[in-house]
């Protein structure tokens, strides 16, 4: 209510509250490349639109005279009491948006009582962001590398640095068709913006050293891998004047990027591989990118501790089902056996309320926090989070529920077509 009161009393917020204005301000604050990368989705961006449209298909039904003078946003998920039902969706390459991105974001998340999720593609090593949250909860998001030793090393580091869950993202074993990035000749990871977890990893550094040594030994023109060559070629085709390789003239950074492109992920993973990971960590494992009830069932069979219904903000499969449309079937199938998290398309507190009412246990906020970061750094993220939570609190009050649980149990959501 303090957020609302400040607004009503004429204190104008410097980070826009309205999602559309926040987006506009962020666009102004970002480079073209950063904007394309963050705002862009796959192909025609139909999935991103479907994510929003899915929210419009559900209507909240306000109930009155139910004594909602005190509300409680807290919840218990993955064995922990939490002050809020929010989590920060992991976003990589945020160094594109702002230099100190990850540390600033981690700090803001901790201050708002929302878990920070360090991406494998972060622009700062997880040990740094772990220090920034200063004892508050954070999770590590894993992209499953082709190199087993590297996977093991990343997981060990997450454990040692104090992560309390492992989010394994399954929907991005290859990068989607990101038309906006392609038009700018921009692949952020290939330019090194999202490889800090790798370059701070002893296993990765060893791979790079070996590659760089081999490159030096083979003469002045090191031979890149086929994957690196394909990337370089596509960038060169689009921007004949700007040689990407120029930035990577010395063998070491070049070898780092090539090694990254080589080991980033594997497309041959199957459900059987989860047993391998399960054996290697005691951290709760949460699978991100589940969109089919049968996959949720298999996740449970594999002994995971949670699933995230998400389509990566529409950045992977163009023309895919809106994430919120996929949520009810997964919730029904999981039937309370493990937590079901949700992200993709959440822009405000009322969206969070709808996802919770449809059975999500925690809701991930994605792009809006990146926009807050662009506009106002750590304080910008903090403000965005507080606005979302304030709107959620007001929405709960106005629909007549006191707790997150009641949003689901009480009859406050109907399909937009009526009943
Ligand atoms: C992402 N997302 C993502 N997910 C993940 O598991 N690891 C990552 O490194 C990233 N990186 C990333 C970068 C950017 C710029 C975006 C927009 C998204 C996906 C993210 O966690 C989440 O699923 C989406 O952001 C949700 O969609 P909305 O709500 O942001 O549209």
Automatic annotation (TrEMBL):
Ranges for domain FMN hydroxy acid dehydrogenase: 11-417
Cofactor: FMN
UniProt KW keywords: Oxidoreductase
Source superkingdom: Bacteria
Family, per entry: Belongs to the FMN-dependent alpha-hydroxy acid dehydrogenase family.
Matches recorded under PANTHER family: FMN-DEPENDENT ALPHA-HYDROXY ACID DEHYDROGENASE PB1A11.03, S -2-HYDROXY-ACID OXIDASE-RELATED
Name of this chain's protein: Alpha-hydroxy-acid oxidizing protein
Gene source species: Aquipuribacter nitratireducens
């Amino acid at each position: 209510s303090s957020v609302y009161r400040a607004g009503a009393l004429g204190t104008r917020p410097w980070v826009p509250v309205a999602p559309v204005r926040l987006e506009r301000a962020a666009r102004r604050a970002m480079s073209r490349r950063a904007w394309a990368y963050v705002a862009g989705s796959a192909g025609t961006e139909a999935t991103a639109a479907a994510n929003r449209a899915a929210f419009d298909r559900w209507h909240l039904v306000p109930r009155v005279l139910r004594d909602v003078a005190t509300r409680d946003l807290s919840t218990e998920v993955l064995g922990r009491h939490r002050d809020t039902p929010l989590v920060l969706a992991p976003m990589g390459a945020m160094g594109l948006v702002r230099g100190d991105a990850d540390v600033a974001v981690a700090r803001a998340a901790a201050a708002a009582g929302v878990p920070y999720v360090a991406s494998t593609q972060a622009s700062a090593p997880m040990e740094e962001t772990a220090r920034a949250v200063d004892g508050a909860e954070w999770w590590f998001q894993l992209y499953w590398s082709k190199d087993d030793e590297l996977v093991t090393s990343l997981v060990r580091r997450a454990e040692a640095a104090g992560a309390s869950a492992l989010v394994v993202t399954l929907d991005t074993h290859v990068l989607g068709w990101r038309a906006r990035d392609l038009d700018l000749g921009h692949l952020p990871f290939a330019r090194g913006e999202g490889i800090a977890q790798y370059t701070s990893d002893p296993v990765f550094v060893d791979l790079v050293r070996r590659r760089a040594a081999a490159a030096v030994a083979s003469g002045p023109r090191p031979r890149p891998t086929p994957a690196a060559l394909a990337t370089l070629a596509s960038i060169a085709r689009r921007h004949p004047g700007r040689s990407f390789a120029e930035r990577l003239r010395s063998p070491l950074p070049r070898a780092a990027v090539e090694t990254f492109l080589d080991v980033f992920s594997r497309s041959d993973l199957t459900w059987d591989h989860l047993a391998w990971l399960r054996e290697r960590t005691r951290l709760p494992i949460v699978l991100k990118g589940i969109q089919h009830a049968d996959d949720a069932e298999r996740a449970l069979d594999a002994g995971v501790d949670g699933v995230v219904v998400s389509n990566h903000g529409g950045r992977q499969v163009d023309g895919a089902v809106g994430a919120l449309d996929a949520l009810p079937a997964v919730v029904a199938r999981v039937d309370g056996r493990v937590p079901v998290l949700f992200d993709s398309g959440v822009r405000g507190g009322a969206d969070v309320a709808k996802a919770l009412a449809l059975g999500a246990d925690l809701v991930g906020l994605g792009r809006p926090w990146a926009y807050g970061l662009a506009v106002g750094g750590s304080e910008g993220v903090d403000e965005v989070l507080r606005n979302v939570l304030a709107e959620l609190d007001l929405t709960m009050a106005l629909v007549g529920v006191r707790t997150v649980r009641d949003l689901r149990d009480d009859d406050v959501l109907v399909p937009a077509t009526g009943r």
